[in-house]
């Protein structure tokens, strides 16, 4: 009797999982808005006429990803909500994740950086990320760190991306993007992905 009950529970759980995997979901549009002071924020609910849609509303299905399609991973909803929460362009977060780990939530670099946004253990502790291999925690922590870099360098995209890779101290000492081959490649890669995702999102 017990084994029958367990078997029924297993079948029910498997059925639910298959339904969830095959289900589609809707992602709301994202707008960029500039206020009277010139500051830019990202939102799904524009309150003024001076807002520009950067990502159209779409309905996604569980299908094979294509290059620069916003549904190229299962983390899009987390990326979108986190971007709006911390006022960071979701496409930029996605570009950083692609450059850092190619959407591998269990990735570990030779230097010990972990997870989707490749947080170093010390940085993860500072950001209070308990489990850097948890996608939601990693995206939240990595986006907060990216927001810090954007604040430090007055939203200068190239310097902020370089600082995410090499650290803000290295960028300040170089008074620009450090002439570190890895950092130069990294900035180029992130900007390439960012442009691709934004162009695709506007279409």
Describe how the helices and strands are arranged.
Elements: H1 2-22, E1 25-27, E2 30-34, E3 40-43, E4 51-55, E5 58-60, H2 76-86, H3 90-101, H4 121-126, H5 135-152, H6 157-166, H7 168-174, H8 181-202
Helix pairs in contact: 2-3, 2-5, 3-8, 5-6, 6-7, 6-8
Low-pLDDT parts are 1-28, 58-71
Biggest sheet: strands side by side, in what order? 3-2-4
- Average pLDDT, rounded to a whole number, is 78
CATH architectural arrangement of the domain at 74-202? Orthogonal Bundle
Strand count, sense and barrel status of the largest sheet are: 3 strands, antiparallel
Number of DSSP strand runs:
5
Share of helical residues: 40-55%
Query: What is the 3D form?
Result: globular
* Structural class by secondary-structure content: mainly alpha
Radius of gyration: 19 Å
The number of helical segments is 8
> N-to-C SSE series?
HEEEEEHHHHHHH
Task: Offer a concise description of the structure.
The protein is mainly α and 203 residues long. The chain has helices at 2-22, 76-86, 90-101, 121-126, 135-152, 157-166, 168-174, 181-202, and strands at residues 25-27, 30-34, 40-43, 51-55, 58-60. Residues 1-28 and 58-71 have low confidence and may be disordered.
Features:
single chain; 203 residues; mainly alpha; Lysozyme; two-stranded antiparallel sheet; 53% helix
Describe the structure.
The chain has 203 residues and is mostly helical. It has a domain at 74-202: Lysozyme. The chain has 8 helices and 5 strands. Strands 3-2-4 form a 3-stranded antiparallel sheet. Strands 1-5 form a two-stranded antiparallel sheet. A hairpin with a 5-residue loop joins β2 (30-34) and β3 (40-43). The chain is globular and about 50 Å long. The relative contact order is 0.11.
């Amino acid at each position: 009797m017990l084994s029958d009950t367990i078997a029924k529970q297993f079948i029910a759980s498997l059925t639910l999982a298959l339904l969830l995997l095959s289900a589609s979901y809707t992602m709301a549009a994202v707008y960029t808005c500039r206020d009277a002071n010139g500051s830019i924020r990202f939102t799904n609910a524009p309150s003024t006429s001076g807002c520009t849609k950067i990502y159209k509303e779409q309905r996604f299905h569980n299908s094979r990803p294509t290059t620069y399609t916003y549904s190229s991973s299962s983390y899009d909803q987390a990326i979108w909500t986190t971007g709006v929460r911390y006022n960071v362009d979701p496409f930029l977060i996605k570009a950083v994740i692609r450059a850092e780990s190619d959407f591998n939530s269990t990735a570990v670099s030779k230097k010990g950086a972990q997870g989707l946004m490749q947080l170093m253990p010390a940085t993860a502790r500072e950001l209070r990320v308990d489990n850097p291999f948890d996608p939601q925690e990693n995206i939240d922590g990595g986006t907060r760190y990216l927001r810090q870099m954007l604040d430090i360098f007055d939203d200068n995209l190239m310097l902020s991306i370089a600082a995410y890779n090499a650290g803000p101290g290295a960028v300040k000492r170089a008074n620009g993007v450090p002439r570190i081959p890895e950092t130069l490649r990294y900035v180029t890669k992130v900007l390439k992905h960012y442009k691709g995702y934004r162009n695709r999102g506007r279409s």
